[in-house]
Every structure is written in structure tokens, then in C-alpha cells.
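Table S2 (text version). Query chain:
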Amino acid sequence: MSRYILGVTGASGAIYAARTAMHLKKFGHNVSLIVTAPGREVVEYEGQDALFGLADKLYKVDDFFAECASGSADYAGMAVVPCSMGTLGRIAAGTSDNLLVRSADVCLKERRPLVIVPREMPYNLIHIENMERVTRAGAVVIPASPQFYSRPATVEDLVDTVVAKVLKHLGALPEGADIVKPWDGSSPEHGIPADFVPENTVGRVIC
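Corresponding C-alpha cell output:
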């Protein structure tokens, strides 16, 4: 299949990186992993060490001789999962001061898919402007905001609702494949009855 770069930074949410790598491998893709020093600490602290075993290649963040630092390498795209606000700022500014940021810059200049998954809240204006800047440059920003309409039963199911979006925008999903069942407009089995009328709620606000 294809080769993808997975960048991991020091934001909380290492499970998003581990699940992204797992599903990329499940669909037959090659994973080149770049983890920052804070990212490695978070991965270990949050118990997601299995991430390292899923990588086909693990590059040092200061190795500018790695092939993903060059636009001539045949990578299909890159995801930064999770992305700290510091790394987002460096990508937006085009600093290329480490291999992860350089690889993201290469994807932008070569017009390859670059997906950025920020894991921060609330955003300040600098964060928002940096997200606008990378979006204008060609990246797709997918905040780590899971959905609940698929009724995820486990933390992994919940995380996968975000990972499914990441893989879709990377172009990493085979024809007809998906991780989470897409929304089809159907009503839940035990939803609110169509003829439901709320009781008189004087003095209360119905949202």
C-alpha cells in the first residue's frame, strides 16, 4: 500500500497516535514514526508504548538526513497526532527546526496530505491564527473532538471516531473500508418518540 509519516508531540492524547498507527498498519500501510522528546515522555506516561512496535521506521527528531526530510521521498502524506500548540506554531511559521516540522513542511510544499490533530482547549487567538495559517497552506486541521452518535462503547471506540477522520483525509482508507460506521441519517433504536411533547416548564429553559 502507501507510506505515511506519523508525527507525535508532547500534547496529551498519545492514544490517538497509537490508534492511528494501528489502523494504518491494519490497512497494510507503512508507518514512519517521528516522536519529539516531550512526545516520548507523554507516550510512556500515558501507557501507549505499543506505538513504537507499530512503526516500520523510527526516526530521531533531529535526524535531518532521514528520507522524509526530502521532497523526493515517496510518502503519501503525514499526520501529526497529537499536535502541541508549539509544534503547530513552528509548522505555521515554516521553521523546519526539527525533522517532524521539516517533514510537515515537505508535505505542504509537495502538496501532499498533511493532517494536524491539535489536542488543546481552550484555544487562544494565536492558536486559532496558526490553524488558519496551516489550513491556507494546504493542511487539514482535525481537532481531537470525538463524536458520540455512533454510540462508542469504549475509550478506544471513542478515539477511533477521530482516527477515522484522520485516515479519511490522508487518503489511507481502502475503497469501501472504514473504522467507524458513517452516519446514515437513521434514528437511534431508543430515541425520543416522534410524538413527544415536553411538560409545562415555566421558569426553566429547554435547550
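Notes on Table S2: The radius of gyration is 19 Å. The chain has seven helices and six strands.
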